[in-house]
């Protein structure tokens, strides 16, 4: 990027020399000369500071931070939520950050009973005399002494409806995707109405599984981790000897489909907030009981199942015959399954911890780094591996500021979010509280949730303006893998060979769903965002996530001994994250490449045409208009000459700070242009017309989500005509939005 910038500036200077703007207009010179101006204000950043920061990130510090952070459970809304937040702001003050804050919110959370064994979440199977023949474990057993701590929350799915239900039938529904239920209903004539269903984790967000089960009329849903999706080994090499999930490991997790506090949608959960009634039907929490189990428990349940054998795609890795289910069979007689779920909602206080390094020249421009702090249990991978790294970056940067060695041009804000696991709550409430300031002043949001879930390669999600900053940082960070051949020198090299893009020219960067705290920054603010982590080889390991995900066994022991011995990969993520932040905070011109946006938009439009173009046109939508708006946008991005000339004039006339601010404001506002303040159709808080999560899988990113959702199964819909009208309306919003983006990049007085 530095070279690109140098070339950029040289091009301007040549432009000055040969162009018609070679001399300043006289009166402009008079008005604007600033003799006392400090040269530093218009000086390009010293990029060697980047190497300095990279070299100071210490793997030993990260290791010690992680050991402390993950020693005890730190579930959202418990005393540990406050304790860790307070320790973090104290740490930030001690390492030289300028300001720190704790921002409390009173939000709706959810907890299982953890002390009365007669009430705790449990599954039972009864025989035809009503005798208990089997019941599930209440807790995950201790497999390593470091887990022997109090306050380990037993397995549960947050916001499950409480309930004590029984059914004579148990139906296996594979991954509980829309297509799984559809196929059961239409090809197998199996109706799940009023029954309990058993689903396996994987493929889609668990909240969407529950929503589908409820939509098809199920009374309750049990979700288990199948070895095929979480333990690709021979099941003997499992935690604590290896990274595989043991049969007793259970994936906890939320099943709330919204973002932020369920009771205060769109507004901060502060003292004066109006709160919805907890039974308000608009709250996107399930109305049926949900319970997660490990594959050891699932193995037992499959033993009571009847019905036909499932096809091979539905089969998992248990040593059992997988059947569709139906009436339970207990020793040849009928049986009953019972779900006793006492999970209940409660309003609790959660905290964000915020630490700020004040920018030297542009303190009102923010580079925001964030990671959540709350964990289901010990959270040594999710999220404390990220917290430990963020602490180390803040230590290095804070010390440089304190010692007078460096102060970034723009402000850097470190954020430690509370209650992410429940539904991105801390970050969303903070955004909702400060949205006016954030929308006017933020440059970008850099998220790291888990920093290391494997030692194969970096993987990145980002919006297009940040591509260049990620590439440039990863080219500077040494490849952390000591076993790698010597021509794989950098994180970039390894990333390129591991996850190349379609033409293998660059590493692949995927679009963002809403799997972590970046979601509300994109959707509510319209901020360029990224999320990076080190990951495993997903060609070698066909798993749905790293195996220990959200189980009690995500311990420091596992990270220190199995996942990242020596903490080299944590260090590489810290170096990458820090360098991206430094580049954004320090560069004279914000290192956003607008052409990357034009290229990304073009490929989205091409994809839309390939998938839906003919269908849209045959329903009276002129696709050519979209191409037209896109081409205009490309022209403005490509030449950007009105912008360039503006800079040239003012560079020549020493009016630099304003000229630079003008350019930077355009860059900063470009992403904002794609925000529709009224939201996508039916989704007031999803406002980015290009990127939002898919409405059937919250984890996955989707392009033109409003259009794609609008056209989902539209031809079979009884209200087809009205639906096409809605699609046309949203299509016109998209055209308008692309045009707004063009206005944003055009010359400041020729935006019309
Ligand atoms: C857990 O710690 C307690 C108290 O130190 C001890 O009595 C118990 O045996 C330990 N349990 C396991 C499974 O290690
Ligand atoms: C489902 O049934 C339909 C109609 O009987 C058939 O055409 C289709 O191939 C079946 N699908 C699968 C996946 O078996
Ligand atoms: C909340 O809703 C429930 C169920 O509809 C109702 O019984 C209760 O009175 C409501 N509470 C308030 C404060 O409106
Ligand atoms: C699978 O289960 C059967 C019967 O329970 C048993 O005989 C067999 O050894 C098991 N196979 C494996 C690989 O565990
Ligand atoms: C399930 O049990 C009910 C009640 O005993 C019976 O009426 C029904 O036929 C059984 N279903 C199957 C598929 O065997
Ligand atoms: Zn997380």
Automatic annotation (TrEMBL):
One of its GO terms (cellular component) is plasma membrane. Signal peptide: none annotated. Coiled coil: none annotated. CDD domains: M28_PSMA_like, PA_GCPII_like. Its cofactor is Zn(2+). Residues 168-254 form the PA domain. Belongs to the peptidase M28 family. M28B subfamily. This is glutamate carboxypeptidase II.
């Amino acid at each position: 990027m530095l070279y690109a910038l140098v070339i950029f500036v040289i091009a301007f200077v040549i432009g000055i020399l040969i162009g018609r703007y070679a001399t300043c207009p006289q009166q402009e010179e008079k008005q604007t000369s600033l003799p006392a101006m400090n040269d530093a204000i218009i000086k390009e950043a010293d990029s060697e500071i980047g190497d300095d920061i990279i070299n100071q990130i210490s793997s030993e510090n990260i290791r010690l931070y992680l050991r402390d952070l993950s020693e005890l459970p730190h579930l959202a809304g418990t005393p540990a939520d406050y304790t860790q937040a307070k320790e973090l702001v104290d740490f930030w003050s001690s390492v030289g950050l300028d300001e720190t804050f704790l921002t409390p919110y009173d939000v709706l959370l959810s907890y299982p009973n953890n002390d009365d064994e007669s009430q705790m979440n449990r599954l039972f199977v009864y025989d035809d005399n009503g005798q208990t023949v089997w019941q599930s474990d209440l807790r995950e057993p201790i497999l390593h002494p470091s887990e022997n701590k109090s306050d380990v929350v037993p397995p549960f799915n947050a916001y499950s409806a409480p309930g004590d239900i029984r059914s004579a039938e148990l139906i296996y529904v594979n991954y509980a995707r829309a297509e799984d239920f559809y196929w059961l209903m239409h090809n197998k004539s199996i109706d799940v109405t009023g029954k309990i269903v058993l689903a396996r984790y994987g493929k889609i967000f668990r909240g969407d599984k529950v929503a589908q089960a409820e939509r098809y009329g199920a009374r309750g849903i049990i979700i288990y981790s199948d070895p095929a999706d979480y333990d690709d080994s021979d099941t003997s090499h499992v935690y604590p000897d290896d990274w595989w999930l043991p049969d007793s490991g259970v994936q906890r997790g939320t099943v709330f489909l919204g973002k932020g506090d369920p009771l205060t949608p769109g507004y901060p959960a502060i003292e004066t907030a109006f709160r919805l009634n907890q039974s308000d039907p608009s709250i996107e929490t399930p109305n049926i009981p949900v319970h997660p189990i490990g594959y050891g428990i699932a193995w037992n349940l499959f033993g009571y199942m009847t019905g036909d054998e499932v096809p091979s795609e539905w089969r998992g890795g248990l040593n059992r015959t997988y059947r569709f289910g139906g009436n339970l069979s207990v020793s040849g007689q009928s049986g009953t399954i019972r779900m006793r779920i006492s999970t209940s909602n409660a309003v609790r206080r959660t905290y964000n911890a915020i630490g700020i390094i004040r920018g030297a020249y542009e303190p009102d421009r923010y580079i925001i780094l964030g990671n959540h702090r709350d964990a289901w249990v010990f959270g040594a991978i999710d999220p404390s591996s990220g917290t430990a790294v963020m602490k180390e970056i803040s230590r290095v940067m804070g010390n440089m500021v304190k010692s007078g060695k460096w102060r970034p041009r723009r402000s850097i804000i470190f954020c430690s979010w509370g209650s992410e696991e429940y539904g991105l709550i801390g970050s969303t409430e903070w955004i909702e509280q400060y949205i006016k300031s954030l929308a006017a002043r933020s440059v970008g949001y850099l998220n790291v949730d888990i920093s290391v879930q494997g030692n194969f390669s970096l993987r990145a999600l980002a919006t297009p303006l940040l591509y260049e900053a990620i590439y440039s940082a990863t080219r500077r960070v040494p490849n952390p893998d000591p076993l790698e051949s010597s021509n794989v020198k950098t994180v970039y090299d390894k990333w390129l060979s591991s996850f190349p893009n379609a033409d293998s020219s660059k590493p692949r960067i995927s679009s963002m769903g809403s799997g972590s705290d970046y979601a509300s920054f994109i959707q509510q603010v319209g901020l360029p965002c990224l999320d990076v982590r080190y990951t495993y080889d997903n060609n070698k390991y066909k798993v749905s996530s790293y195996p220990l995900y959200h189980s009690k066994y995500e311990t420091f022991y596992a990270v220190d001994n199995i996942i990242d011995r020596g903490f080299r990969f944590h260090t590489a993520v810290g170096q990458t994250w820090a360098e991206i932040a430094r580049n954004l905070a320090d560069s004279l011109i914000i290192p956003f490449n607008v052409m990357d946006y034009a290229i990304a938009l073009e490929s989205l439009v091409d994809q839309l045409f390939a998938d839906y173009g003919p269908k849209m046109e045959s329903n009276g939508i002129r696709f050519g208009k979209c191409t037209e708006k896109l081409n205009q946008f490309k022209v403005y991005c490509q030449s950007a000459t009105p912008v360039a000339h503006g800079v040239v004039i003012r560079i020549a006339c020493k009016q630099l700070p304003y000229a630079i601010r003008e350019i930077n404001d355009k860059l900063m506002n470009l992403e904002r242009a794609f925000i529709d303040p009224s939201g996508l159709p039916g989704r007031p808080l999803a406002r980015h017309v290009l990127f939002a999560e898919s409405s059937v899988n919250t984890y996955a990113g989707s392009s033109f989500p409003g259009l794609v959702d609008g056209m989902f199964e539209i031809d079979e819909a009884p209200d087809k005509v009205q639906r096409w009208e809605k699609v046309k309306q949203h299509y016109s919003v998209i055209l308008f939005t692309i045009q707004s983006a063009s206005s944003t990049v055009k010359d400041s007085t020729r935006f019309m």
